[in-house]
Amino acid sequence: MKILTAYPEMFPGSLEHSVIGKALKENIFKIDTINLHEFGIDDRMSIDDEPFGGGPGMVLRPDVVEKALKSIPEQHNIESKKIYLTPSGTILNQEKLRNLSKLEKITILCGRFEGVDQRAIDVLGFEEVSIGDYVLAGGEIAAQVLLEGCIRLIPGVLGHPESLLEESFSNNLLEYPHYTRPQVWVDSLGNKHDVPEVLTSGHHSNIKKWRLNKSIEKTKNIRPDMYINKEQKQD
Ligand code: 6GU
User: 208 CA distance to ligand 1 centroid (A)?
Assistant: First the structure.
């Protein structure tokens, strides 16, 4: 994974921790940052400039992006998938993560400022991807979101790969609720809260049915859009 960024010190960031951090230590994946500031133009080493046509903010220059990209040595002829992270891209989802997790090489351009010169995106072949309908200050956190989502899908990264089968989005349903000990939780106000009885019954097929029903109920309530998609898919 190559990350083109004006803030290389933000990496590996969250990717250094937990199960993803373990995979990083085990060389299951590698992160190299390319500092855009090293490819700045003229004596001031600028990487951005004012937008043509006016307007607020600064735009990342296409020549800087090209120089930074071309500085990455080509390895065994596999072309890297190029992603530009921007709130005006197509929205990332689990299917996209599954596809990305199968790729050997991904190059991510993190936007900052108002954006990146469109010619760089078009000419250099970046796919524009957003992580959701809200705006962050830059693409670095988005890159960590995308990478974490991808890396956990690489075989061997998760301790319990079967957890991938039933998790939210794997079948267009949100995951059912989970419970653990204590079986009766007495909260700080003295109120008692039981675990749903079926889960302690040991009756596996009933548990399975209960969980599926909970998944359906939850999806209808919280993500009716997703539930409609599911019904359409089954037709
Ligand atoms: Cl990829 N970048 C920024 N700056 N904001 C975002 C985003 C990306 N995805 C959602 N919001």
Answer: 38
CA 45 to chain CA centroid, nearest Å: 31
Per-residue pLDDT tens over the stretch 49-75 = 999 999 999 999 999 999 999 999 876
Residues with C-beta less than 6 Å from any ligand 1 atom? 85-87, 111, 130-132, 134-136, 138-139, 142
For residue 206, the CA-to-ligand 1 centroid distance in Å is 42
Nearest atom of ligand 1 to the alpha carbon of 132: 10
Task: Identify the structural domains of the chain with CATH numbers, from first to last.
Answer: 2-151 (3.40.1280.10), 166-234 (1.10.1270.20)
Strands (E) located in the chain: 2-5, 32-35, 48-49, 59-60, 81-91, 106-110, 115-116, 127-130, 184-186, 192-194
Distance CA 36, CA 47 (A): 7
| Segment 141-172, tens digit of pLDDT | 999 999 999 999 999 999 887 778 778 887 88
Instruction: Report the atom number in ligand 1 closest to the C-alpha of 139.
Output: 2
